[in-house]
Amino acid sequence: MQAEIITIGDEILIGQIVDTNSAWMSKELNAIGISVNRITSISDTKEAIVNSVEEAMSRVDLILMTGGLGPTNDDITKKTLSDYFACELVQDDQLYGKIEERLARYKIGMNAFNREQALVPQGARIIPNHFGTAPCMWFSRDNKHVISMPGVPFEMKNIMQTELLTRLSSEFHCPHVLHQTVMVQGLGESVLAEMLQDWEANLPSVVKLAYLPSPGVVRLRMSLVGDDEAELKAIVEEQLAGLKTILGERIFAFDDEKIEQVIANLLLDTRKTVALAESCTGGNMAHMLTAMAGSSAYFKGSVVAYSNEVKANVLGVDINALEEFGAVSQQVVEQMATGASKAIGSDYAIATSGIAGPDGGTDEKPVGTVWIAVASADKVISEKFVFSKERGRNIRMASQAGFNLLRKLILNE
After folding, report:
1. What's the DSSP call for residue 127?
2. Are 305 and 371 in contact (CB under 8 A)?
3. pLDDT value at residue 204
4. Which of 130, 150, 213, 274 is the most exposed place for a label (fewest CB within 10 A)?
5. How far is 311 from 318, CA to CA, in rounded Å?
6. Kind and range of the H or E run holding 87
7. Mean pLDDT across the stretch 243-260?
8. Are 372 and 401 contacting, i.e. CB atoms less than 8 angstroms apart?
């Protein structure tokens, strides 16, 4: 089934707030077999609301709207939709009592604006809002359905989770939807597409493939829709087997799992610990690890060795190596990794040293050049990368690459 989402509010259009509702709603709807094919943001005017509803109804059978249901004069969605669907606004005594009770808890008296909230469109289905005073309204005409919800995110989410998703799934007998994400590290989107050209050409017609790139990572997403869930799962397993053959250890996860979570799981499973020696990544890798609850079980500590003095005095990097090869070199980054492991007392260590930019590059070592090393008790491996010209992107990509290098070391031990 196809649906559209309409978000109402001048605050969205002027950039005062970001529309997070649509992304969340789309994901939840997709999970029950309802595909969102258009998202529209409109102003708080009767003309915009009516026009957008009419246009959406000409394309799809289900429209979900958020916003404009508050108690103030600029909240006109309820009145506009009630007029459009020829529904008289009548007082809902049960809702009136709930509003009165809610206000009494805060020692606030009922006023005209609050009484307005208790008016509901006669003939529409009213779905309760357990966290606010504006209920959800479900209008229907000629097998077209328009559902209006509050724009406050936690109110909208509660309505959908407790009431609406179940009702939609039951009402429209939606098909099964299956998504399979494959996380790939160390390949650009175009290179990955070239590697998968033959595999992609032979995909079953039921499989829709998407490439979703981000710095250092490409997410491959297979989406399937059908009536037989077991058949869909069998198709996915067959295609995953082909991907594993082609990509091998370039695949680091089969869900939307971040690389740092993969590292956390590997370290927990092996009961090992890691330390960091960060130069060009400037503590970003430590932040990625400590942002996860429970990281103290496997993360021992970090040294942000930005200067050569810290590299030498704290990590024990040989001054001669720094002078001969420079800070951005295989020799130095390997000593940083072994030095961090020894100084902090960890089983593994990751070290980064590079030129994040935008300045500092040379012909031999342009901006984006990064050396990364990982060390264990008896092995050190290192690799040179050349990323981009943009500083923030280089930091993110180097962080991803560092964790991925450690992943390979652990898996191959």
Report:
1. E
2. no
3. 97
4. 130
5. 9
6. none
7. 95
8. yes
> pLDDT, tens digit, for every residue of 75-109?
999 999 999 999 999 999 999 999 999 888 888 88
C-alpha distance from residue 35 to each of 3, 175, 176 (Å):
6, 11, 12
Show the CA angle centred on residue 332, arms to residues 326 and 336, nearest 5°. 140
User: Same structural domain for residues 14 and 123?
Assistant: yes
- State the Cα–Cα distance between residues 333 and 326, nearest whole angstrom: 10
Indicate if the pLDDT at residue 258 is higher than 90. yes
Q: In the listed set 141, 172, 203, which residue is the last one of a domain according to the structure?
A: 172
- d(C-alpha 71, C-alpha 373), whole Å: 60
Task: Tell me the residue range of the domain where 306 lies.
Answer: 259-412
Give the end of a domain, one of 223, 253, 283.
253
Amino acid, single-letter form, for residue 399:
S
Structural domains in the chain (count):
3
Q: Report the CATH number that the domain containing residue 337 is assigned in CATH.
A: 3.90.950.20
Cα–Cα distance for residue pair 388/366, rounded to 1 Å: 9
Which phi and psi angles does 197 have, rounded to 5°? -55, -50
Phi and psi for 284 in degrees, rounded to 5?
A: -65, -40
Do 303 and 372 fall into the same domain? yes
DSSP secondary structure code for residue 36 in this structure: E
Domain membership flag for residue 178? no
**18 and 145, same domain (yes or no):** yes
**Do 311 and 326 fall into the same domain?**
yes
Q: For residues 154 and 302, state if they share a domain.
A: no
Alpha-carbon dihedral sign for residues 92, 97, 100, 106: negative
Q: How many CA atoms lie within 13 A of 137 on its CB side?
A: 29
Residue 275's pLDDT band (boundaries 50, 70, 90)?
A: very high
List, for residues 340-356, the tens digit of each pLDDT value.
999 999 999 999 999 99
Report pLDDT digits (tens) over 55-75: 999 999 999 999 999 888 889
